């Protein structure tokens, strides 16, 4: 939850370093993290292993915090399950006293995602306004965005194969957050924004909480800067081959 702001454990630091090595060839343009300590430390560890953007500023945002669990925070998961059972509810949708509802978490996720879309549109507009600026898709740097899961995930991956030039994205954004929050955000992508999912993804995988430092990758297209109808493709979900 939010109320117990503990640092990463020794295992957590090892997992964060492993994620950093896994993503070390990905050139990020922006990094956002929850302002809770465990997420801050994870984001710093990932950037610390990166070949291109060790000095990129990490921006902390309270909208990326874990779901607030009220009276259940700092207590074992078994206690939360017992509270839900006593209330006659299923654990994932149960809201303890003083906690956030799933709708409230989803609203935070929606607000942050719309902020990211606005950021990407403004970047594109700024780029096009430069006199003599080359097209953003004309880059030839094969290492511009090197994603480590290309060979075993969705075919939606930006690739330099065949065309001789890489797809240059307007923004390539790393977001470091928390399990229950991210599950709600992904649910918003799927149910509200009709996100395209990998063909081999099962229903249980879609509803599961990401493992610590699990990596999910989404490609967002905003046709003509249209913030209302983003086209979202999930390349991979809760990828954990680095662990």
UniProtKB/TrEMBL annotation:
Binding residue positions for substrate: 38, 66-69
Any Pfam family matching the protein: His_Phos_1
An example Gene Ontology molecular-function term: fructose-2,6-bisphosphate 2-phosphatase activity
Keywords associated with the record: Hydrolase
CDD domains, sorted: HP_PGM_like
GO-annotated biological processes: negative regulation of glycolytic process; regulation of pentose-phosphate shunt
Cellular component, GO annotation: cytosol
Protein name per UniProt: TIGAR bisphosphatase
Organism field: Chaetorhynchus papuensis (pygmy drongo)
Lineage of origin: Eukaryota, Metazoa, Chordata, Craniata, Vertebrata
Gene: Tigar
């Amino acid at each position: 939850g939010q109320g117990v702001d503990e640092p990463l454990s020794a295992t957590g630091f090892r997992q964060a370093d492993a994620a950093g090595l896994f993503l070390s060839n990905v050139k990020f343009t922006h990094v956002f993290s929850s302002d809770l300590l465990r997420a801050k430390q994870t984001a710093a560890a990932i950037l610390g292993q990166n070949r291109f953007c060790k000095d990129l500023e990490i921006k902390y945002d309270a909208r990326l915090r874990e779901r607030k669990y009220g009276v259940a925070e700092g207590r074992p998961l078994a206690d939360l399950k017992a509270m839900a059972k006593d209330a006659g509810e299923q654990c994932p949708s149960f809201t303890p006293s003083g906690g956030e509802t799933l709708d409230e978490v989803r609203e935070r996720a929606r607000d942050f995602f719309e902020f990211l879309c606005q950021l990407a549109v403004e970047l594109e507009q700024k780029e096009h306004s430069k006199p003599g600026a080359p097209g953003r898709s004309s880059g030839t740097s094969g290492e511009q965005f090197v994603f480590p899961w290309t060979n075993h995930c969705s075919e939606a991956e930006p690739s330099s194969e065949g065309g001789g030039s890489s797809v240059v994205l307007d923004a390539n954004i790393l977001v470091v957050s928390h399990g229950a929050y991210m599950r709600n955000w992904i649910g918003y992508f799927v149910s509200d924004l009709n996100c395209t999912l990998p063909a081999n993804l099962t229903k249980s995988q879609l509803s599961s909480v990401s493992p610590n430092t699990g990596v999910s990758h989404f490609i967002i297209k905003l046709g003509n800067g249209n913030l209302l109808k983003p086209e979202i493709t999930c390349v991979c979900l809760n990828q954990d081959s680095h662990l």
